[in-house]
Amino acid sequence: MTDLEPDDVRALADLGFLALSRGLGVEAEAIFEALRAVRPGEEAPLIGLGLVRLAAGEFDRAVAQFRAAPKTDAALTFLGIALLRQGALAEARRVLETVAAAGEGGPADLARQTLAEIG
């Protein structure tokens, strides 16, 4: 296994998210799978793989991926969004409300925005 410096991990994760944002799901998945192999407990590759599944419309797999990620506000927010897409509105609302109440900034703001959109 290859040891990566924290800056290398961040750079590769950024590259994976960039690939995904450009519609390159296969490439993003390969990057996130490689990161997961060298840093199995790290949040970014697990969230990245969940987002790959979400973008592909594989909502059950996205939910499973986000459930496997560390329980951070970011992972929980994306879990809520995946649950919403899966049709599990009540559970999605509970997860998003928990994150929204937890604080300010990125994930909490996204959770509040998503809650506002679903009413």
Order of helices and strands: HHHHHHH
Mean pLDDT: 93
Biggest beta sheet attributes: none
Choose one word for the global shape.
globular
Report the radius of gyration as a whole number of Å.
14 Å
Summarize the amount of helix as a percent range.
Answer: over 70%
Q: State which percent range the strand residues make up.
A: under 5%
Low-confidence stretches: none
Can you tell me the number of structural domains? 2
The number of E-state strands comes to 0
State the secondary-structure class.
Answer: mainly alpha
Describe this structure in words.
It contains 7 helices and no strands. With 119 residues, it is an all-alpha fold. It folds into 2 domains: 58 residues, no CATH class; 49 residues, Up-down Bundle (Methane Monooxygenase Hydroxylase, Chain G, domain 1), CATH 1.20.58. Helix 6 packs antiparallel against helix 7. The radius of gyration is 14 Å and the shape is globular.
Write the SSE topology.
Elements: H1 6-21, H2 25-38, H3 43-55, H4 59-68, H5 73-86, H6 89-102, H7 106-118
Helix pairs in contact: 1-2, 1-3, 2-3, 3-4, 3-5, 4-5, 5-6, 5-7, 6-7
